[in-house]
């Protein structure tokens, strides 16, 4: 971390401790500013004429096979990918798009230790971020067959991401709930802008909206960023009708005339992705570089896509989950359905790792996207709205 960012990071922590509203210019006179405030007024800020860049870290899958050599090496490699892209692109904001950890592979009591590792490249650079849950984040631990002894009783093999604590009391493998993971992230790091969503939607936790504002207060908001929990792991892979109702009433409440563009993030693609998926090669109007598997969609569609389709303000949806897909395709000529790019070395598939970037420019509003690969190459540039 540079000295400037270190000082900035300490300053932010101090300002948050003392409850000030802090407007922080991360770039020291650069493209944009980022506002960090005490809850509940978390919001992001961009200067008029500047642009706001978001990096999507999808499917990192930290914590796989900690009892072997290759597992921890995957996490080291994932840190390298994130660090490289953060330094190359210098984004204003990062979205952790689910499957941050592979909890079904994490034999420690507290998966937050792995979650923290995944967040660390972003947090260490003083970049604000938000996260949504994927199907692996709170999945129950699955015992590897090779652990079972001849008598059928698995030997106790506790391993800890924090090597200083090797206490057997920590060795319960019960898993870490979505709520525990989210509360830990929010409480332990002031750069987290995540929220644990309305209580009545629990156990679906990562449901919230962040406002991107202009630093000129007389201007309307630049965009609303919506985050939804698409389930999986401890409960079905679905965005429920209760979540749909929450989105409907929230968007009507804060953007009743649909004047402010809306951008949506969740993990598991909706069934609508099946409708737009390219056959074999990716051809226009779709843009992307890999189309290597079938869309693995949510189990049911409970009305959200209909609402998104009817709101002229909704410009694009971004998901992860399918590691072998990285395209964007238009849906009913109304909005774009996009995949991120598999960022982590954890999880299935050996396609080269990369990061989807999303850039918002206010006045006039435009939404651009591209993919930055771990070797530095850029591809799949597209204007999603202008
Ligand atoms: Zn995944």
UniProtKB/TrEMBL annotation:
<dbReference type="GO" id="GO:0005737">
    <property type="term" value="C:cytoplasm"/>
</dbReference>
<dbReference type="InterPro" id="IPR011230">
    <property type="entry name" value="PAP14/16/28/29"/>
</dbReference>
<feature type="domain" description="Calcineurin-like phosphoesterase">
    <location>
        <begin position="52"/>
        <end position="323"/>
    </location>
</feature>
<dbReference type="Pfam" id="PF00149">
    <property type="entry name" value="Metallophos"/>
</dbReference>
<feature type="signal peptide">
    <location>
        <begin position="1"/>
        <end position="22"/>
    </location>
</feature>
<dbReference type="GO" id="GO:0016788">
    <property type="term" value="F:hydrolase activity, acting on ester bonds"/>
</dbReference>
<protein>
    <recommendedName>
        <fullName>Calcineurin-like phosphoesterase domain-containing protein</fullName>
    </recommendedName>
</protein>
<dbReference type="InterPro" id="IPR029052">
    <property type="entry name" value="Metallo-depent_PP-like"/>
</dbReference>
<dbReference type="InterPro" id="IPR004843">
    <property type="entry name" value="Calcineurin-like_PHP"/>
</dbReference>
<keyword id="KW-0732">Signal</keyword>
């Amino acid at each position: 971390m540079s000295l400037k960012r270190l000082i900035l990071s300490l300053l932010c922590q101090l300002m948050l401790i003392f409850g000030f509203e802090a407007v922080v210019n991360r770039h020291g006179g650069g493209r944009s500013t980022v506002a960090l405030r005490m809850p509940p007024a978390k919001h992001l800020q961009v200067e008029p004429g500047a642009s706001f860049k978001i990096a999507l870290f999808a499917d990192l899958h930290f914590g796989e096979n900690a009892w072997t050599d290759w597992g921890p090496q995957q996490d080291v490699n994932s840190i390298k990918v994130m660090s490289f892209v953060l330094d190359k692109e210098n984004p204003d904001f990062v979205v952790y798009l689910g499957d941050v950890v592979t909890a079904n592979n994490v034999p420690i009591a507290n998966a937050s230790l792995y979650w923290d590792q995944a967040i660390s490249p972003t947090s260490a650079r003083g970049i604000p971020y938000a996260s949504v849950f994927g199907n692996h984040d709170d999945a129950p631990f699955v015992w590897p067959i090779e652990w079972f002894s001849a008598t059928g009783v698995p030997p106790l093999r506790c391993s800890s991401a924090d090597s200083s604590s090797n206490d057997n009391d920590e060795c319960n493998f019960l898993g870490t709930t979505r709520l525990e993971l989210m509360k830990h992230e929010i409480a332990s790091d002031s750069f987290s802008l995540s929220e644990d969503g309305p209580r009545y939607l629990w156990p679906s936790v990562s449901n919230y909206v962040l406002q991107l504002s202009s630093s000129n207060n007389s201007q309307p908001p630049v965009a609303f960023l919506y985050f939804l929990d698409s389930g999986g792991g401890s409960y079905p892979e679905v965005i429920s009708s209760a979540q749909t109702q929450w989105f409907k009433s929230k968007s009507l409440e804060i953007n009743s005339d649909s004047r402010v563009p809306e951008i949506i993030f969740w993990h598991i693609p909706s069934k609508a992705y099946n409708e737009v998926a390219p056959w074999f090669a990716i051809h226009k109007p779709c843009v992307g570089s890999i189309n290597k598997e079938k869309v693995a969609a949510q189990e049911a569609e409970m009305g959200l896509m209909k609402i998104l389709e009817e709101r002229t303000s909704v410009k694009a949806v971004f998901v992860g989950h399918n590691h072998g897909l990285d395209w964007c395709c238009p849906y009913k000529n109304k909005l774009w359905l996009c995949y991120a790019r598999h960022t982590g070395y954890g999880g299935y598939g050996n396609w080269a790792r990369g990061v989807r970037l999303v850039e918002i420019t206010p006045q006039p509003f435009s939404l651009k996207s591209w993919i930055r690969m771990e070797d530095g190459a850029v591809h799949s540039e597209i204007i999603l709205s202008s």
